[in-house]
Amino acid sequence: MPPVETVSLSHARRTLLRAHGLDAPRAARTGPVSLRQVDQLVQRLGVVQIDSVNVLARAHLVPAFSRLGPYDAALLDRATGSAPRRLVESWAHQASFVPVETYPLLEWRRRAYQREAWAGIAAVPSVHGSIVDDVRSIIAERGPLTASQVQLEFEAEHPTRKVDWGWNWSIAKRVLEFLFFTGEVASAGRNPAFERRYALAERVLPAHVVATPAPAEPDAVRELVAIAARAHGIGTVRSLADHFRLRTDATRRAVDELVEDGVLLPVRVEGWGAAFRHRAATTARRATGAALLNPFDPLVFERRTVEALFGLRYRIEIYVPEPRRVWGYYVLPFLLGEELAALVDLKADRAGGALEVRAAHTTAGTATAGPQAVALALAEELRLAAHWLGLDELRVGGDGRAAAGDLADELRRAVAVTR
Fold first, then answer.
1. pTM here?
2. Which has the least CB within 10 A, 186, 220, 235, 381?
3. Which neighbouring-strand residues pair with 94?
4. Contact 265, 39 (CB under 8 A)
């Protein structure tokens, strides 16, 4: 066996960024971003996580902006909500959009719901068995419907409980989420309130997807790991498993098989350890891009990888009480070159027509370019984001308070000189 190649952290970062399409400035465009380009991007990433938090923009919308620049967000609605669908919702990396071709690769998870789903969903058939049958019939006869619409049939006997904290799911929502997890129903799209519109899966999925036999679990996992490896270019067993939230032992077996087949090449990354590079991965000579990344971007899915490769201990703090937050409520890393060079807490003040920077912090990566250069590049990216979101003003600070963080003053000056 030939010796395992050893590469630097910088080499690994530039390989990762090239695979994600973040290693260079966005391509100049003579026209708007097309549906085909959005579809190609999701094919490249393999999965795009969905999250309902809308303090800036819905999570699934931002990765395309990060890589393609301003685009019509309705393109994703069309790709997911109109036939023939190019993307469908599934439990992949949490709730996610995946290419339709990936949907059959996740059938084993739907079958193994008792092992794979969280307890409240796995228990639905035993706790609400008769209602499962009723909901199936309602969706078959009248779908697509939201959970709120279905709940109207059960509200008198099973009223929705209102509590101060947690998921206030109605009984219809619980049953529909069980049927969604197991693949009996699928999302036909989202309404303006971001509620799923549930329909029978065979009425949502393209015919060729419905007709595709589901592979055995080991074969499916191997293909999912290959997709993850192509999306990242390079990764550890842990980071490759995290892309589709696979079990580590199953991922390790898949990696071994992919190495044997020549799809993955073992490497050693200084300061990171044993890793695997996809045979199609290339490494940028230099990383020169700039992009805001939301907390659910595939580049930063696996936080230990972020810490190992970029030297940044990054956590989302939405559910952390305000006095205990370190960075802010909805904090985005700012990529500059091959560094995560700043962290910014952002809010879209839609009523006031402004993108607000609530906090701006330096990171260990700030030192590479220096705070002033980072602030200037960040100001340009924030203006582009404000334009994409239809906001006329970029404001450092909000609600009558100055922005927090050790980069805030530098960013305020940069915003002033880049108007």
1. 0.94
2. 381
3. 92
4. no
